[in-house]
Amino acid sequence: MKLKIIIALASLWLSFTALAHDKHKSDEWRTLDANKTVLLTLPHGKVVIELAPQFSPKHVEQFIKLTKSGHYDGNKFYRVIDGFVAQGGPEDGSTADKSVSILKIEGDFTTDENWHFTKIQDNDLFAEQTGFKDGFPIGHNLSEKRAWLTHCPGVIAMARGNEPDSGTSHFYIVNGQAPRYLDRIMTIFGRVVYGMNNVQAITRTSAIEGEAPVDKKDYTPMISMQMMSDVPKEQQILLQIENTEHSAYSEMIVKRKKRENAFFYKKPPPILDVCQTPVKTRFVK
Amino acid sequence: MKLKIIIALASLWLSFTALAHDKHKSDEWRTLDANKTVLLTLPHGKVVIELAPQFSPKHVEQFIKLTKSGHYDGNKFYRVIDGFVAQGGPEDGSTADKSVSILKIEGDFTTDENWHFTKIQDNDLFAEQTGFKDGFPIGHNLSEKRAWLTHCPGVIAMARGNEPDSGTSHFYIVNGQAPRYLDRIMTIFGRVVYGMNNVQAITRTSAIEGEAPVDKKDYTPMISMQMMSDVPKEQQILLQIENTEHSAYSEMIVKRKKRENAFFYKKPPPILDVCQTPVKTRFVK
Fold it and tell me: Is the Cβ pair A208, B282 closer than 8 Å?
């Protein structure tokens, strides 16, 4: 009798774990919401940006409104510095430029004991902890109960003047080693999830000392900026992103720290730079 | 009498400091040695690489020999991963590939109390100290008396198999967030000092899941790899590099940590990432 119960329980347990395992598998990737995804078309290729309304609601709201109104179509990348940022927006002082509302900075946010993220590292150079939430790179200072999106390559943030609350529509995409000193004093509101090679191919506008300046007519234009949901179905790029909240992602992180591949004949320190830790993208089949 | 001596001494001191000041000014930049500088010509532009024989003598010796023999001319960048590296070399298993001598790794080196570098940061994620020597980014563990060139964007290093002493001629240039976990287990032997935008425009060979693979015929070739000293005078690119041993550079570092510009309405932590700290290049007038 006792044995039968054990067998019954064991088989119940097996079917549960089988189900759990299937569930588990299917959740390793999440499909991007076309209403929170932007398609930037450049002369040389496409770029897909996932917006982050959960972290920077007002900036995303304004960016979507501007995108839908065609504000960015034909704008140029006018400040492009290799290893730093590609910045673009409407012509300074133009009607389009002056018509945009001024935004309040959304540089960091308060966390409480219920707040959770996938931690990958303690004692980062610029944060007490780093990790990911919803695929976005995060810095977190537990002592302050504050967290923020970090300036990793590929993040998109609003440019501003000297005042914290002075961002409008001019934005930059980080194209080089993470300028983490800008964390918390700028508003990051999304990240490039596809086509970073096309961001890297945007014409640099800054010349070095002694070099001829770049002609403005050679600046890279934005052919168009569209919400993915407004793109005709057959031209949409449908993507899935690794689910950084899934146990499979945490397992990858643990493995990555160990560097068990035979290539590592001598083990590096078991440390991860949040900006050098991949969150993969794939095409929806 | 006493006063006259003071005046004489003062005027002597003034002329000395004037001289010292001029000397100081002229040493803020150093001119690249054409015998240690490489010109890589890509279909879309030029790249200049400064070699580091002072850190990786055997690798530089072999790289110069190969460059002079035309080994790299027509080679392709066959492993190009956005945000990681652009790797190139001869076709695997070709006569050229098999003819190259195997190198002993030069991943780090011993320092003593007389060894000096321009320190910029303590307690970096991957090193006890970081800084620069001769314009190259350096990691240093005082406790071990070992230092090394760090994997910042733009450094060139030799690829290898699983064995430490297995590098030949295949090399990579870091094109994304510094993969510092490769520090000390790879041999960095130079860095890009001009044309990093052209490195960034090398065709990526890696496709994401669900994407069509990149056709091998689209891989970016190296039109030529030449020692700058072998390039006809009128086609040479003559560059100067900020002298990281000069007090002006140290002063820039101190200033950079302080972030006194009005843009920083809230000061970031006074921390520098060695891979996000610029060493400028300019054209020789």
Answer: yes
